[in-house]
Design goal:
11 strands; 32% helix
Length: 266
Amino acid sequence: MRKYSIVVLLALLLVTVLPISPLAEEHEIDPGYEVKFMLDVSQFATQDDIVNAFQASHDEDLKVYYFDTPDQIFRKLHYIHRLRVYDGDKKTNITYKKTFPDQTIEEAIAEAHAHDFHGDMSNYKFEVDKKPGKDSFSISRKEKFEQDERLSYDKGIDTAYALDLLQVEAPKKYRNWDDQDWYYDTLEEAIPYGPAAVSKYAGEYENLDADLEIWNYKGETIAEISAKTDNKAEAEDIQAEWAEALAENGWLSENQQSKTSFVMDR
């Protein structure tokens, strides 16, 4: 009995002396914001004129591929698989993205929470795309790889190898969003869309830092300026200021399509 009493006493002392640490509380998802505008490229004589209009300097060149089935099952269910292959010595990367185009931001975040996503997941990016007339929430994750001759900027890609990478590296939460077996079976049917040839620039518009991307695919060209911020009010200010200025300059495109659509709809 005495040994038992000593054990109980020690346990009580430990409870008294050591603070009880509550389980870490999962934080709400607090997305970042990316303001995006498609430019009317017909208003510029050359691509250099677009670059000069935004006082931009060249950053990098890359080829962009999307992977989906011939009837684009993934896209219909709001999955995006994007492969970027860079010119030079930069790493190749795959982005897995889940979009919520038909929901409000609040509804989309609630659904993300229901799938056990939370704001402490630093390996995922939670972002709201702010385009004219439409805000859209997305979850994405990027996986980076060393250069490989099977994924070449100049020579193209080995599709079978790229699909193997997509399967092996797919994050658990992404591939399990609906059903893992369905995901893998569907991915085996995927084909590449692209590549689009992309040039990225760092520039300025209305005294604000701006990212400029020029995409060329199947004889057509699009250009987009964008800016990122973690502050919702700042994003709304940038959107309003740029919308007005672009309209005044005659540079705002009537077609505010996504870059994904530019490639996958051709």
